[in-house]
Amino acid sequence: MLRKLSLALVLTGLPMALFADAEAAKALNGLLAKANTVTAKFQQTTQNDAESRSRESNGTLSVQRPNLFRWEVTGPFPQLVISNGKKVWVYDPDLEQVTIQKLDKQLSATPALLLSGDVKKLKENFDISQTSKSGDKPSFLLKPKAEDSAFESLQISFKGEQITGMMLKDTLGSVTNIAFSNVKNNVAVEPGQFKLDIPEGVDVIER
């Protein structure tokens, strides 16, 4: 059907699509920029085509712009992800392992660091559309521009000026839903939240 559309129709619709995307990016930027810090609890559920059961986890989130991030999974399998703006640490207590990686352009475009990043650069990394404008519950769909991105799309939902959820679809067919609760914007966050003191005896892998 799409192939049968005339060139005139395509050219007529293109400016309107670009305008809509620009408006969506502006609206999302406006919401994210209002929160210099965010703290929250989260519950995460992941389902893929190969599994009949979903995997669930929960934990806490702390972010501070630009690029300071702490994502702590408290159960059932603990994991800690921290960014100090230059590097990212991933600590797996069960594996007794810490992975350290530079916060490069590709990594900064991942969902985990989206909330703490530079909102002005969102349009550089994502195609953005607004999927809901109803009342005080807007939602947005982001699709990475990079061909080698690990995920296919990301939906972000708000209530007022606070984030309420994220839905991630990765390139392998898995769908992850994240529900946020006890969300607080612009509260003081201890600087130590964005630093990892590596425990003795763990393996350290630098990439």
SSE topology:
Layout: H1 7-33, E1 37-47, E2 55-64, E3 68-75, E4 79-84, E5 87-92, E6 97-102, H2 105-108, H3 111-114, H4 122-125, E7 126-132, E8 139-144, E9 151-159, E10 162-170, E11 175-185, E12 203-206
Parallel strand pairs: 6-12
Antiparallel strand pairs: 1-2, 1-11, 2-3, 3-4, 4-5, 5-6, 7-8, 8-9, 9-10, 10-11
Main location: periplasm
Signal peptide: 1-20
Protein name: Outer-membrane lipoprotein carrier protein
**Name of the CATH first level:** Mainly Beta
Radius of gyration: 19 Å
Specify the oligomeric state. Answer: single chain
Q: How would a crystallographer describe the biggest sheet?
A: 12 strands, mixed
- Domains (count): 1
Helix percentage: 10-25%
Number of helices, where a helix is a run of at least 4 consecutive DSSP H or I residues: 4
Structural class: alpha+beta
Instruction: Name the shape in a single word.
Output: globular
CATH architecture classification = Clam
Percentage of β-strand residues: 35-45%
Q: List how many beta strands DSSP finds.
A: 12
N-C termini distance: 46 Å
CATH topology, by name, is outer membrane lipoprotein receptor (LolB), chain A
> Which residue ranges are poorly predicted, with pLDDT under 50 across at least 5 consecutive positions?
1-19
Question: Going across the major beta sheet, what is the strand order?
Answer: 7-8-9-10-11-1-2-3-4-5-6-12
Q: CATH superfamily name?
A: Lipoprotein localisation LolA/LolB/LppX
GO cellular component, one term: outer membrane-bounded periplasmic space
Main location: periplasm
Pfam families: LolA
Keywords: Chaperone, Lipoprotein, Periplasm, Protein transport, Signal, Transport
